[in-house]
Write a structure and sequence with these properties.
Number of helices: 15
Mean pLDDT: 96
Distance between the termini: 24 Å
Radius of gyration: 22 Å
Strand order of the largest sheet: 4-10-9-8-7-5-6
Oligomer: single chain
Number of domains: 3
């Protein structure tokens, strides 16, 4: 799209996330409006939003049920004093989350998004161990290629060097292991690579000293590594390791949560229940900043005490549990449950994979992976994605693209014809990117 001189001047006064301004100005996108599966730029051109904003709009943009829930809540309250009260709709949200979460994960605190939620979970776990007889536990084992948010704690747990090195030195106490994709060419099968990668968690815990390790945090499906999708056995081994050494298992489901993988949470997709789930993004379908920390109910007992005992979780945020956001979250959950969108995600996911297979004719696809409608395509050419970033926008489609892979997660309002449209745009964009690279 063509920018005005005013827009160019204003863009130089701000920044686009993880995007050099000069590079953005070569291929800019300024969005005026969004509805359903599409966004329109300031010039009126339409784009297929194949990732729901950024794995957020699970019900598409401006879903009628969400808009109505916001209107109703605006007639009641849009903010309450968080040091003095909690809104009734926030309590309804706590109840609703507890009904859909796996196992006994019913202790819920709402926040303003994924980064806040992850930060709160790590603080919660450290305080929990201090108050349950293991005060020396403070470290968190995480994975290289993982991403856990933009705060200093979340960044320290993340394993993306280029995103972290500008802010070093990092916080201590965050040892890392590699994901199974790191070992896939060293073993005869994907299953063996997963077993080795899962065993590495126990090796690190032992060598760090189990009495110092508070938790393990990871994304069930790793986004920034290219939709890394481990086996179910990987998670079962990890669950057993954490139980063995009194280590809290945290699933960062900011991306995988809310039906994308074919179940409400990826924990249910893989059949392993963690101690804490962190959510964000899809929990509000992008209509309001919202996230939630969901913990085992019995963990809350460590934060309860007699009046005057000053026993509480020493953490809070101004917009945590915002009533307008909680109303939106309830509407999203109700729509997913009533329309059985988890089953739809599973069905659409199978169709999506069959359509993405059309890319294999180009001879540049190494692997298609993921669960449900959350899918990634890895290239054999590690630089093809650089060209694809340009050609995708030119062809009117928004993807999550890294140099060696791209990802999609279309909103669950999509049907098979929409998947056909999306994949046709992807196919054309990959063909154009190949032509650009070969030229």
């Amino acid at each position: 799209m063509k920018l005005t001189s005013r827009q160019i001047q204003l863009l130089r006064r701000t920044f686009i996330d993880y995007y050099p301004t000069a590079e953005f100005l070569e291929n800019p996108l300024v969005v005026d409006r969004a509805e359903g599966l599409y966004c329109w730029d300031a010039g009126g051109r339409r784009y297929f939003d194949a990732i729901g904003g950024i794995f957020v709009a699970v019900l598409g943009h401006r879903h009628p049920r969400i808009m109505e829930a916001m209107r109703r809540q605006m007639e009641c309250a849009t903010f309450i004093p968080p040091l003095h009260a909690i809104s009734s709709v926030a309590l309804d949200f706590v109840e609703r989350i507890g009904e859909i979460a796996p196992g006994n994960l019913k202790f819920v605190k709402a926040f303003s998004g994924g980064s806040e939620t992850v930060e709160a979970a790590m603080k919660f776990v450290r305080q929990y161990h201090k108050q349950t007889g293991s005060p020396g536990k403070y470290k968190f084992v995480s994975r290289y290629h993982g991403y856990h948010g933009g705060t200093f704690g979340g960044m320290a747990a993340s394993g993306n060097g280029s995103r972290k090195s500008k802010f070093e030195p990092q916080m201590g106490g965050f040892p890392k292991v590699f994901p199974p994709t790191h070992y896939r060419d060293r073993f005869a099968s994907w299953e063996e690579a997963n077993r080795f990668a899962a065993q590495c968690f126990e090796d690190v815990i032992l060598h760090e000293d189990p009495d110092t390790v508070a938790g393990v945090i990871l994304e069930p499906i790793g986004n920034t590594g290219g939709i890394i999708t481990p086996t179910g056995e990987y998670f079962r081994m990890l669950r057993e390791t954490c139980d063995r050494y009194n280590v809290t298992l945290i699933f960062d489901e900011v991306i995988t949560g809310f039906a994308k993988t074919g179940r409400m949470f990826a924990a249910q997709t893989f059949g392993v229940t963690p101690d804490i789930i962190c959510t964000g993004k899809g929990i509000s379908s992008g209509a309001m900043p919202l996230g939630a920390m969901i913990a085992r109910e019995e963990m809350a007992e460590a934060f309860s005490g007699p009046v005057g005992g000053n026993v509480h979780f020493a953490h809070g945020h101004t917009y945590a549990g915002n009533p307008l956001a909680c109303a939106v979250g309830i509407a999203v959950i109700d729509e997913i449950v009533e329309q059985d969108l988890c089953a739809k995600a599973e069905r659409l996911g199978e169709y999506l994979v069959s359509r993405l297979a059309c890319l294999e004719k180009f001879g540049v696809v190494r692997e298609i992976r993921g669960k449900g409608i959350l899918r990634g395509v890895e290239f054999t050419d590690p630089n093809l994605g650089i060209a694809l970033k340009k050609t995708a926008l030119r062809n009117g489609i928004i993807l999550r693209i890294d140099p060696a892979w791209f990802a999609v997660a279309p909103p669950l309002i999509a049907d098979e014809p929409d998947i056909d449209e999306m994949c046709s745009l992807i196919e054309k964009s990959v063909a154009d990117a190949l032509a650009m690279v070969r030229a």
